């Protein structure tokens, strides 16, 4: 949006048309228009520039008159009363008490034809109603009085969590804001650190409580504390504790608890907002009744700015207004206005009426936390025991201030053994490694892409580093100060250059929390003050929340405080309805927003399929944490009367839990057992176990795998999992120096689930490795080496013990591609759900002989000495470079399916263009392909044993023929042309040429030829979008389509995965004419499949949905927008009751699919071989007839026919003799129209014979 050039005579418009400035010598003639009509729900925001020499302030409104049709003389001096009296103009204005330099005024028109105004992102109310939104409406401003300038700025939108949910969520949020909003100042204070370093004591010190030497260690996450602070009173934080007997603040100070300060704080927040609304309505003079045929607009009665307002809108809550233009002498509350109003609200209203200027919040700015705004911090104390690491990441958020706590007395680089656990000493993290782990976790899980909004120097969320037990370092203060500085220098040097450094708040703090409350540490005061300052600067502080959302949150908090841990969706819907939240869209947005904030846990979004999760809302996250903790740390009581000892033993040894044991662990939540199991599956903390199909006994109870309990087991011996053979395929997932154990165990959970879906049973699970089933011939192993930041993936092929082979054959490329696709799609999902900043790449170990730095050995096999090559580069290039030397990649390319073979169209060369070429083939045959000339140029310039002459000898040409080539001005071009013509003039001739070039190591020429092949290939017109679990069924569909003449793109035939596959997918969709979506339940929830279909929709490609499995239609989630209007073809249930048989039914469905595809793409009917420009028979005839010697050769130019035969064998190409002659082929093709698409190819050896 820009300002229109037509404006008042005192206004100057900037060059970019974004700023309008009024002359300082007058207070009028300041009307300015926007240059285009305002759209429904489009928010236009201006920042004011003000002076203090005049009276009055900004006026704004809308008009149906196009400013382009106005002249400067048509623009009056004032918007009011001059424009307000004209038909098609509506004017509102602001009080000068509301405006100052920097104030932001936002205006928009909603779908109900109402004109809303926000000041500093706070909703002021509906200023104009019943606008003619069926016409174009232009926004205009009157720079009147003290407002002498405005600048168009981006409008402050909805909270980022709502914006991330899409336009529907933003629309629902704005709709809720129209009934009144309240600024919210809240955050979390997350204390993380090792066990027994003093996190809980630090929490007590920050909140002014005495140190408790008998403090127990935290289990799981303790979020029972909530505190508040005010910037004009920094002496202490007020604490509200749930579940403990701490002193609470008096009732008179309840209002300072704010949101997330417990039920009392929420209730007080809502009462305060409601009282503000009532007072503001009482302070305005009622508006006279107007004709309903005219839009309702405000009218100004004097130049001072007092105006009349609509009193109530449609029976809703009165709008939240900020200006107080005319205060009437109201000292008592009208009885009809306080019916059904809580007593606390009546008290607050009476207080404000008696002293209208007492509540400064009515006119405060909301750009930053002012001195009268209370900030509420929920304090989360994370357990330090290593056993909890796998669940903490679930609760990390960007709306928090993090404090990394460590003990200054600990050795920062040494390893302190956890007291609560019996684990291997070698695996313990040092203090620095532990701090690095947590800061990388915060960066990966919670980091925002933007800097904080104030100084633009740090990433959000901020991280404080605090050392405790300062006084225990030394009794001498000077020595103590030096030791602290030494510790901090060590930490500073360690974190320099790490990806999370921009989150760190400096300087670090050294505190002593073993003090009484009356002997407070000065560093505690400084830390508290810095937390207040940093938290107040976060961009989410002061966000406007709909008042009815706050009331809903109050009810939810009350239920959680009363012990209601969960509720059904219908119950939550009823609570929302009681607070004026009616529409499904608004309820969904509300629940998703509070889920993102961590107030509730709700996974019932439309992308979920599980009905149990969709119908359940967790009101108390602490309860859910406790349920998870029981699965992680519970152990057998070893009681002699424990009749479930066998089940406990199975859980502790094999991480398999049976349902009777689940009932014991969740004895107080049995009705919600399946909901909790569903949530644990959602978090990838467990997966259902499918018993082996050949098991002789039937298991009475269901059971589940819990891979996260593997960390309690001893280390395993990787050598026992698989034989170490050269035929194994070994790839690596390199995580760039950060691989949390929790991520590895989640991958194991998904791998177990995937393996069982493929038919595998009972995977071998160990602490740092596991073996899984792929198919009847293949398994794969996942290893996480100790202290390394990568996962080793080994794909093995089973050996038939009945044969005499000593080693297994190499795995099939399709199996390798299947594993890689699974792993990369899994990591893509986990990154989208939990760890948005986790970085990884697929690699292979470099086979070069570079000496390792640690052991000074060539090809050192130690895990920490490996260096890697990027897999995508290896699959797309013949040669790659490592730090040591160039490496050939053919050994890696054999592991995966090669890209679809590109071939030149037969014939390669036209024989007619080679007549009378003499001794200058390049001049006399100008139509030769460019790639052939380029290859010849490189050959002519080759070194000895790599030039054209070496190639001719390699091909078997005799000396006299080579001398004849040498007589040509371009001997290499003459050689290549002769080779192609005499060897059949087909793509096979070029493949043979590439084979000889590879033997000469002329990879540069091979690349030229292969690039020319890719340029000539036909792009498939059918793109098959599918999820890999149904690959076999989709492959059958592809084969059927290709037999019908439709060339299909399917990624199993292209590449193994990675960025190269993504580029190929993008190219395939863009080049296709139609996209066939193979819909299954896993397809719907797959991020990769959603991206494919989303790109197809953006590119407006026709989409044909085919159901391979039963799903709800339209499918839930984002795909519903794309697929809801499309008619699907159902392949599920073919051959069932009433059909003609599975094969006949399937053929009918295939024909239906082909019919739909034919609408968008024409099948390619391949011509028979005899219709080529030049056939093999013609080549032989020309050789027999003795054509010009310049381009004629015979079999005598080859040393032996076996040269060709052996070459074909090395290429891996079939050598089959066709028995049909060309004339027979033509006759059969012409007599039988059904065979017109048959392509009969002759072997080139047979042609030469």
TrEMBL record:
Keywords: ATP-binding, Kinase, Metal-binding, Nucleotide-binding, Repeat, Transferase, Zinc, Zinc-finger. It catalyses: L-threonyl-[protein] + ATP = O-phospho-L-threonyl-[protein] + ADP + H(+); L-seryl-[protein] + ATP = O-phospho-L-seryl-[protein] + ADP + H(+). It comes from the Eukaryota. Residues 180-538 form the Roc domain. One of its GO terms (biological process) is signal transduction. Residues 1-155 form the NHR domain. SUPFAM superfamilies: DEATH domain, P-loop containing nucleoside triphosphate hydrolases, Toll/Interleukin receptor TIR domain. It holds the Pfam family COR-A. Residues 1018-1135 form the TIR domain. Its EC number is 2.7.11.1. Residues 947-1013 form the Death domain. GO terms for molecular function: ATP binding; kinase activity; zinc ion binding. It is an enzyme of class 2 (transferase). InterPro entries: B30.2/SPRY_sf, COR-A, DEATH-like_dom_sf, Death_dom, NHR_dom, P-loop_NTPase, ROC, TIR_dom. This is non-specific serine/threonine protein kinase. It comes from Patella caerulea. The lineage of its organism: Eukaryota, Metazoa, Spiralia, Lophotrochozoa, Mollusca.
